[in-house]
Amino acid sequence: MAATVSINPATPPIGVLLAVEHLKDSVPVQVQEGKNTGLKVNGDVTFTTVPSICRYLARLAPGKQLYGSNSLEATEVDHWLEFSAGRLGCPADFGDAVQYLNQVLGPRTFLIGHAATLADFAVWGALRSNNLWLNQLDRGKAPPHVTRWFRFLEEQPEF
Amino acid sequence: QAQLEGPVRDIVINTNPSSPPLSLFILYELLKQQFRCFGSVHVHSSVENVPEGLCKCLGNGIRSDLRNRTDFQLAITLIWKDVKPSPQMMMSAAYQTPIHGESNVARYLGRILQPSYDSLDPVTATEIDTWVDMASTQVLLGNNKERAASLRSLNSRLGKHDWLVGSGLTLADIVMWSALHQTGQAAGVPANVKRWMVACNGQPAFQSALKLTQS
């Protein structure tokens, strides 16, 4: 099944682009420039948010397990999709949110299980486009586990 | 009765009595119709004066000392506690991050009700998730402006359809209905939303959820 995603190059939805890159062998997705982020499914349905587009693409290729490998992992993915769109995007909560993320990442390489999922894409993408985070990182003030995880993913060819 | 893989699923949910998660009560009613459920409710010392209805919210007359937990397929322990964000769900402390938020706990219970949720129809599942996201981030956690915008989207959708997604009740309706009640908006909704709320209220599981908060 093919799909076309519109993106505005000025504010690229990084989480969506990472999902597209990881799925390219299973789901051919065309990326085109537009005013707004969107994935049109049919005349009635267009998904416009990063979580919705990521969910839809991952569901087209269940074998890739980007949505986790069981119902609990799928719900953990949901938890992080909401976290990336909610707390990480809210400047007032950003500091606490990153501390929370740091605590969770202490014993982990990926947010869920032993491979990258939508959770990593969405949270990484939300940080990558967040100036508060880039500032922390530049000044060496970012918490250690988040920094390690962020740098590790950055080195993966898909990122 | 439906089958659940593996041993009894043990779910612990901490949640705040100042904003009872109605959607979870509805889902518990629906789960009871499919599985042998063991529900227990506790009150943590961080909260006081929890209404009686809430203290009995999963009570279905089963005395825990008379039945063996292994007779059940699903064990849900609800703890009224001063937690933020609320609710928080825990299955296995060693392998998972606690699941935060009513929307996500509802998604997990929804997946128990319908294990094929993610794979059956990607478009429908994602449409449902989009409404669930809106209920969570714009209604439950949103400001007045975001709530007003959500009501406009809801009213527009429900002008052309009876339910939020597809031709029947889904998780989208359950979580959105719950969010509107919890944020005190159930009374003053626009006409199409009102008609949909009446249809929701006609469902027995919604009725019993509402009663819990009124006692």
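Residues 32 and 148 of chain B are 35 Å apart (CA to CA).
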